[in-house]
Write a structure and sequence with these properties.
Layout (H helix, E strand, L loop, with lengths): L15 E4 L2 E3 L17 E3 L7 E2 L5 E2 L9 E3 L10 E5 L3 H7 L4 H22 L3 E8 L7 H17 L1 H6 L3 E5 L7 H14 L6 E8 L1 H17 L10 H7 L12 E4 L18 E4 L9 H12 L4 E2 L2 E2 L1
Parallel strand pairs: 7-8, 7-11, 8-10, 9-10, 11-12
Antiparallel strand pairs: 1-2, 3-6, 4-5, 13-14
Helix pairs in contact: 1-2, 3-5, 6-7
Length: 313
């Protein structure tokens, strides 16, 4: 799940030697990700539609052609998930299998993230949440943590223009108090600059855990009780939802969670929000995850009959 966000495809390797346990160095012969088979045929047509699904199940935008949009064969636009969550696991294993520095795995994973972001934009998915750095990841070797923080910060600086051109809104959730001051300031500027973008909302979870999110929500509610703003009997699911960090989006509950690398767990990600989320576990390591695998997950999602405590939708 450990990953650092960058929308750039041309990040140069960084030399880090501050820890004897990890040594990230320039690798001029980094192998590209394992070649993938060609994706399913895509139908590029003026009849492709950009679809927005509302909470009541109605469709906005259906019948309004989107220029140069694509609709992969076999996918139904009316059944597209509004919110997809990603646990991007397997970067380090990908690098070690190839005898490469660990940092090369994270840089290779950048290409997969970029591919998925582009697909979400084309397919009309409203929200993409990615588990970039968990609260537990702070216990990893210092050199690795510093490498990822620098990669994340550099990527945000370099890609501001792309975010604006592609109409992407960035939201960062997690315990920001553990981040450097410069990174905190950069996150604030990025969120402010992109807040009016109305395309894909990219939520990046950094220094985040689902348990932390619930605890901080309870702390905020407790302060309101203490200040006499609410009574204990006023506390309900809706109030907790309002205090979770995913209150930054119109669609806080993921419809689909994808985890890569064959691991069958959610690893403390969005614990409250995943209550009725459909889960898809991919065997691919994250740097090998691309269009074919993402479309497979979407097709599997559309084949399921969703149930919410016995109610069919």
């Amino acid at each position: 799940m450990l990953f650092s966000l960058s929308l750039s495809l041309s990040i140069s390797p960084t030399t880090l030697t501050s820890s004897p346990r990890f040594k990230f160095h320039s690798c001029p012969h980094v192998l590209p990700p394992t070649p993938k088979p060609p994706p399913p045929r895509l139908r590029a047509s003026s009849q492709a539609h950009h679809v927005i699904l509302h909470d009541n199940g109605t469709v906005a935008g259906a019948g309004a052609p989107v220029e140069e949009n694509i609709l992969p064969a076999g996918l139904r636009p009316e059944s597209m998930p509004r919110h997809v969550a990603l646990v991007m696991d397997g970067n380090r294993r990908w690098a070690r299998i190839r005898g490469l520095p660990v940092g090369s795995g994270y840089e290779a994973g950048v290409r997969s993230l970029r591919s998925v972001v582009e697909l979400c934009c084309k397919l009309g998915i409203r929200v993409l949440s990615v588990f970039a750095f968990s609260s537990e990841n702070w216990f990893r070797p210092q050199a690795e943590v510093e490498f990822l923080m620098e990669l994340f910060e550099r990527g945000m600086r370099d890609e501001m223009g792309s975010l604006l051109r592609e109409n992407i809104r960035i939201s960062v959730i997690g315990d920001s108090s553990k981040l450097s001051r410069s990174l905190q300031e950069l996150i604030t500027r990025t969120e402010e600059t992109t807040k009016t973008n109305c395309g894909l909302q990219l939520i990046v979870a950094v220094s985040y855990s689902g348990q932390y999110d619930i605890v901080q929500a309870c702390q905020k509610i407790a302060l309101k009780v203490k200040d006499g703003l609410i009574e204990p009997n006023d506390i309900n699911e809706s109030l907790i939802k309002e205090e979770l960090e995913t209150n930054c989006t119109e669609f806080p509950y993921p419809d689909l969670l994808i985890r890569t690398s064959g691991e069958l767990r959610i690893s403390n990600f969005l614990l409250w929000q995943l209550a009725y989320t459909e889960l898809f576990f991919a065997q691919s390591l994250w740097p090998d995850f691309g269009e074919v695998e993402f479309l497979e997950a979407l097709q599997a999602f559309q084949q399921r009959q969703r149930r919410y405590g016995g109610r069919d939708f």
